[in-house]
Amino acid sequence: MRAPRRSLAALGLTLALLTGACGGGGDGPSTADASPVSASERAAAAGRQLAKNTLVPLEGEPPTPELPVTVDSSDGRKTTVEDASRILPLNGGVAEIVFTLGLGDRVVGRDITATFAEAKKLPQVTKAHDVSAESVLSLRPTVVLADTDTGPKEAIDQIREAGVPVVVLETATSLADVTTRTTRVAEALGVPDAGKALNRRMSDELAAARAAVPRGSKPKVAFLYLRGSAAVYLIGGKGSGADSLIEAAGAVDAGKDAGLDKPFTPITSEALVRARPDVILMMTKGLESVGGIDGLVKIPGVGETPAGMDRRVVDMEDGVLLGYGPRTPLVIDILVDRIHRA
């Protein structure tokens, strides 16, 4: 399996727990709990919510799009959206935003990376990570939301030539991109106030998650992107996407700290020894592809790191870890607990 382009843009190629004035319900503590609730309590609540694999939309009645609007598209165009009755997001994280804004009943199809329960029954319009223009057009969308990694370009051109407005967004590779994308999606769909409300909710959720970071703890965490069946063995560095999450969880990105200035670098024993991670972070399918922790520590250099010797490995579901959407605060809650655990 090749690397997910939308989650790992650099390869060529994220709480409902908190309740606030603008937030939804859930199993977690309220956003009023800004004091450091125990990391294990927050992680347990986050785990329960992720296990449901469902989203929690904003409270209140779904917003009504005020259209038409003309917005900037990240491929250098201006796009006018006149109708948001049939929305087609071609990215899992973007789909999460649309559903959480309260517009899920308007979504007519999904990308392969939209794996949450509400999207499962929708027709899939991508094969691997390539968009099928014919599948998209068969759903008669009134607006398509893509990102700069969505392709092939010919398919996007064909959709536009058929008269369907396509709004292209920058690929999300850092925590800050979540609010930017939320704002842009909400504006493109004519619900800017709902976008502001969702951003406030996520900001409160992230603040509460960070408040649970243990004082004085600063472990070094290496993000490894592995696909054993394809012989892909990479370590993340600056701009990997995972570095932002690691830092938000109060840790140090080991690859970045070791001077790896590219998003991904082939794993070597020397690179791992230089990085000396205390914890290894991976996607679940990547860990499974090398035979679990037993297979991971057999990769040259891994077993010699502090993380390898202590078998300290944190894995999270592929579509959630780097999804960079409304569920990202859940990811931070879990990382805060698991990477700081002695």
From TrEMBL:
<dbReference type="InterPro" id="IPR002491">
    <property type="entry name" value="ABC_transptr_periplasmic_BD"/>
</dbReference>
<protein>
    <submittedName>
        <fullName>ABC transporter substrate-binding protein</fullName>
    </submittedName>
</protein>
<keyword id="KW-0732">Signal</keyword>
<feature type="region of interest" description="Disordered">
    <location>
        <begin position="56"/>
        <end position="78"/>
    </location>
</feature>
<feature type="domain" description="Fe/B12 periplasmic-binding">
    <location>
        <begin position="86"/>
        <end position="342"/>
    </location>
</feature>
<comment type="similarity">
    <text>Belongs to the bacterial solute-binding protein 8 family.</text>
</comment>
<dbReference type="Pfam" id="PF01497">
    <property type="entry name" value="Peripla_BP_2"/>
</dbReference>
<dbReference type="InterPro" id="IPR050902">
    <property type="entry name" value="ABC_Transporter_SBP"/>
</dbReference>
<feature type="signal peptide">
    <location>
        <begin position="1"/>
        <end position="21"/>
    </location>
</feature>
